[in-house]
């Protein structure tokens, strides 16, 4: 009887913890343009889902990208990062399981793009591998 109560209590605690954690590949409209890695973390379920490739990037680089096996994608508008840009910008995020390619643009900081997954970089070109 004690074992059953203890197991039930542990399951209840685990369920409560899981309910408070963000679900993987769920995306809110929030985006921190000063550090796009925070959006990667959100889309990854704060580290719980490492099974997909994920990329977040400023919309100005959209023409230089393609992704296969898209699970989810979205777009949001963000205010300038600490007045770095004079106007709001659109950002895209893509969670995908297939191959992909992206040409990095910008100064190399996390205000222009961030990505996670299985990839190789050749200068500014990022080649993603299927997962």
Q: What does this protein structure show overall?
A:
It is built from 2 helices and 8 strands. With 131 residues, the chain is of the alpha+beta class. The strands form 2 sheets. Strands 3-4-1-6 form a 4-stranded antiparallel β-sheet, with helices on one face. Strands 2-5-8-7 form a 4-stranded antiparallel β-sheet, with no helix packed on it.
Shape: globular
The helix content, as a percent range, equals 10-25%
**Number of DSSP helical runs:** 2
- Poorly predicted runs of 5 or more residues: 1-25
Strand order of the largest sheet: 3-4-1-6
Highlighted features:
131 residues; disordered N terminus; 8 strands; alpha+beta; 4-stranded antiparallel sheet; single chain
In short:
With 131 residues, the protein is of the alpha+beta class. It is 20% helix and 32% strand.
Outline the fold blueprint.
Elements: H1 2-20, H2 37-43, E1 53-58, E2 65-67, E3 70-78, E4 89-96, E5 100-103, E6 113-116, E7 119-122, E8 125-128
Antiparallel strand pairs: 1-4, 1-6, 2-5, 3-4, 5-8, 7-8
